[in-house]
Amino acid sequence: MNANENFETATSQNHTHADRRRTRARRARSRFLGITAAAAISAGALLGPVLASTAPASAATTPGWLMGAGTLAGITAQDPSTASQLLNTPTAYGAGSSLVGNPIQTGLATTPVLSYTSYAQFSSDIQNARISFPYQWVMFDPEKWSQTPLNEQQSPARYMALFGQLAHANGLKVIMAPAMDLGYVPGSVNPRLPGERITHWYLRANIAGAAAAAGDIVNVQTESQTTNLPQFDWLFNNAAAQARAANPSVQVFAEVSTVNGTPQQMATAAQSVSPDGYYVAAPGAIPQAVQFLDVMRAAGY
Length: 301
Known about the structure:
- By secondary structure, the chain is of the alpha/beta class.
- It has helices spanning 12-29, 37-47, 69-78, 80-87, 119-127, 150-154, 156-169, 198-204, 207-214, 229-246, 263-271, 286-298; strands at 64-68, 92-96, 111-116, 137-140, 173-176, 217-220, 251-257, 277-281.
- The chain has a single domain (12-298), classed as Alpha-Beta Barrel (TIM Barrel).
């Protein structure tokens, strides 16, 4: 997952601005993210066999949840019952950017996560002992945007490895959330091939595998494929296979977003795969996020 939906501070206003930045980025690149069945077959020569959809998650499944702390606060305010049932647990994660305070409101057992878009900033904060809140988890969300330094955008595998090494050396667990738009970065060490779909680049470059090798949770940005279940399943299942091959103990999350479908479409896509959890992006759309969670709750999640 990923935004600065992820980079939410203690103030919901800051979260809203970050969400809108990510929404604009997603809309700008959404036209690139479709794949056809023929393209998926041709990708097999590079990527190996296209994986069939695994059995969808069932009502007996208890997935993890990941979202920005502002989204969590909004859902809790609008629907305390659903928030209490699904999100009031250490297997739910709320991401914020405060170095000194808990981004999760008092009374919730949700695990706080300190979010970063830059390895350089994380390294500086560690070296200068700026992180005073006792976080146990950090997240790295490199994307093609100004918040991530260009050299980190160009070599995401290298900087995910460095981020993971530094975090683990300091007793922190890591959520990796690399964006697919890193394939558009000029000067990339692993550039897209001529005419290559960005989803194919993401798999050919083994971004999920590199993320898993350095992290404990990997968020796969599947949300752009929400309304086309074969494509959603194809992307998630192949990325999850790469991640688990690199790190058999990693957890793999699938992302859904209110930008890319109705609450019912989000739930249908979410239930079509079997991730360890879900990243829920809801930039400026808390009511839709609540509706999505209500559908998932009714299905037994």
